[in-house]
Amino acid sequence: MRRALGGPVAGRAAARVAFELPVGAAASTPRILYQRIPNEVEVGTPWPLAFESGEWEGRDGTRDGPVIIGGRYSAQWVKRDGRWLIRSEVFVALTCSGVGCSLVAVP
C-alpha cells in the first residue's frame, strides 16, 4: 500500500505500525484522527463487490480539531460469508494546512 502522500508501506505489520504511536512516545504526542466521508457506494450485480468513494480528512488531535490534511479516496469491498470486507483502498492527499503541510510527498 502507499500512504496518501505516496510513501510505500509493505505488509500488514508495517501498515499497523504506520497508524500507531512510536514505542515510548508520550501520551501528549500529537495525533492525527482520520475520518472517511463517503459520497457514493455502488453495489455490483451479479458479483459480491461494491465500490465506495468520497473524501477523507485528518484532524489535529480530536474529532473536533482543525483539519490539517485531506483528500479523496476509493475503496473496493467484497462480500464474504454475509459480511462486507474492504479488499483495497486508495487515499490521495490533496489539501493541507498547518502541520499537515510539513509532511513530505514521495515522488
Characteristic key phrases:
107 residues; mainly beta; four-stranded antiparallel sheet; globular
Helix content: under 10%
How many helical stretches?
1
Shape designation: globular
Uncertain runs are none
Structural class: mainly beta
Taken as a percent bin, the fraction of beta residues is over 45%
Distance between the termini: 15 Å
Strand order of the largest sheet: 1-2-3-4
Number of domains: 1
Q: Count the strands?
A: 4
- SSE string: HEEEE
User: Radius of gyration over alpha carbons?
Assistant: 16 Å
The major β-sheet equals:
4 strands, antiparallel
Q: What integer is the average pLDDT?
A: 84
Task: Give a verbal description of the structure.
It is a single chain. The protein is mostly beta strands and 107 residues long. It has one domain. 7% of the residues lie in helices and 49% in strands. It contains 1 helix and 4 strands. The chain has one helix spanning 12-18; strands at 32-43, 49-60, 67-80, 83-96. A 4-stranded antiparallel beta sheet has the order 1-2-3-4, with no helix packed on it. A hairpin with a 6-residue loop joins strand 2 and strand 3. The protein is globular and about 45 Å long.
